[in-house]
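wait is this the right file?? whatever heres the structure
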């Protein structure tokens, strides 16, 4: 598999790739979420998945952000292993032009540490460059002008992290360079008004490849991996106290999942437990500190991107089977 050394995978999964193993989707490894039918209708029922128009460019390790209910897919790596500068915009409500090309990144990036919208602009942090090295870049895209600019570099080279916006500030998780590194994931905050970074409290553990979301002004980080492999942990960061708190574990340990926030709840979809991709959809409710399992994603994937638009959660691209290439699959969850 091209670029396999940069995927968030355990030792067992790396061995499977080396042997050319190819798991199938017909026998989900997580029995808690039975397969649900693929729907493509105008008004689907709740707790269903809908197949949407394919991405023009198949890729994995990409990031996504939403501006005015338009989804921007940024960077990633194509099936040939090339880090991409490609940016494509998806209009979920479009009837004629659904996908369109936008101005490319200043430089190709795969597995950036998130894409976050602040003030109608998209902030993309770090990622691997064309030489497969982690970077410190902060690129900002303005959809109104279809142009990119470079801002103050993040203090630490980063990839496989995550980012989110709270009160107009950009928070970026920067994991250690290796999942086996015992160091904790660091947190940095960027102020767009001053173009400056400051360090914040590090996470209690390594959160490489965790799903990030913001609910009621707090940053949630679910899953990811550490030196022992995929984890089910959920940690919450409170900016007002600069402190982390552990919450209820996910039912399914996983890394390289996709997700987002809908209706004040954190959705975590897909990912990998170390052998084969999951289609599991699980939702965390802060009010009662509990998880529930929803409909199984039709195409189990990991290292996919996710974005929320029009009240649906879209999961785009990724890798569907161990040992296979990236795909252009576009599926949306209707809560």
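ok assuming it is, sequence goes like this
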């Amino acid at each position: 598999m091209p670029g396999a050394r940069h995927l968030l995978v355990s030792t067992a999964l790396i061995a499977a790739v080396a042997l050319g193993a190819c798991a199938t989707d017909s026998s989900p490894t997580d029995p808690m979420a039975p397969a649900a039918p693929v729907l493509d209708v105008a008004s689907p029922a709740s707790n269903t998945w809908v197949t949407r128009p394919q991405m023009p460019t198949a890729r994995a390790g990409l990031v996504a952000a939403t501006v005015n209910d338009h989804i921007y897919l940024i960077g990633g790596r194509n099936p040939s292993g090339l880090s991409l500068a490609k940016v494509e915009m998806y209009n979920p409500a479009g009837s004629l032009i659904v996908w369109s090309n936008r101005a490319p990144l200043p430089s190709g990036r795969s597995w950036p540490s998130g894409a976050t919208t602040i003030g109608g602009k998209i902030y993309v942090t770090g990622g691997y460059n064309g030489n497969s090295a982690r970077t410190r870049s902060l690129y900002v895209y303005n959809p109104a002008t279809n142009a990119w600019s470079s801002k103050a570099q993040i203090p630490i080279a980063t990839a496989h992290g995550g980012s989110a916006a709270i009160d107009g500030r950009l928070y970026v998780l920067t994991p250690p360079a290796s999942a086996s590194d015992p160091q904790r994931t660091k947190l940095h905050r960027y102020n767009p008004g001053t173009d400056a970074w400051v360090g914040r409290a590090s996470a209690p553990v390594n959160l490489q490849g965790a799903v990030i979301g913001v609910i009621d002004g707090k940053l949630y980080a679910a899953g990811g991996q550490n030196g022992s492999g995929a984890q089910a942990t959920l940690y919450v960061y409170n900016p007002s106290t600069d402190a982390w708190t552990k919450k209820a574990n996910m039912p399914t340990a996983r890394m390289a999942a996709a997700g987002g926030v809908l209706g004040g709840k954190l959705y975590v979809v897909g990912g990998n437990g170390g052998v084969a991709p999951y289609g599991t959809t699980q939702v965390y409710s802060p009010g009662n500190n509990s998880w529930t399992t929803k409909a199984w994603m039709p195409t189990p994937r990991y290292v996919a991107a996710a974005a929320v638009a029009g009240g649906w959660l879209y999961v785009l691209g990724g890798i569907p089977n161990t040992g296979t290439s990236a795909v252009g699959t576009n599926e949306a969850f209707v809560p």
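Residues 177 and 252 are 25 Å apart (CA to CA). so i think its the right one actually
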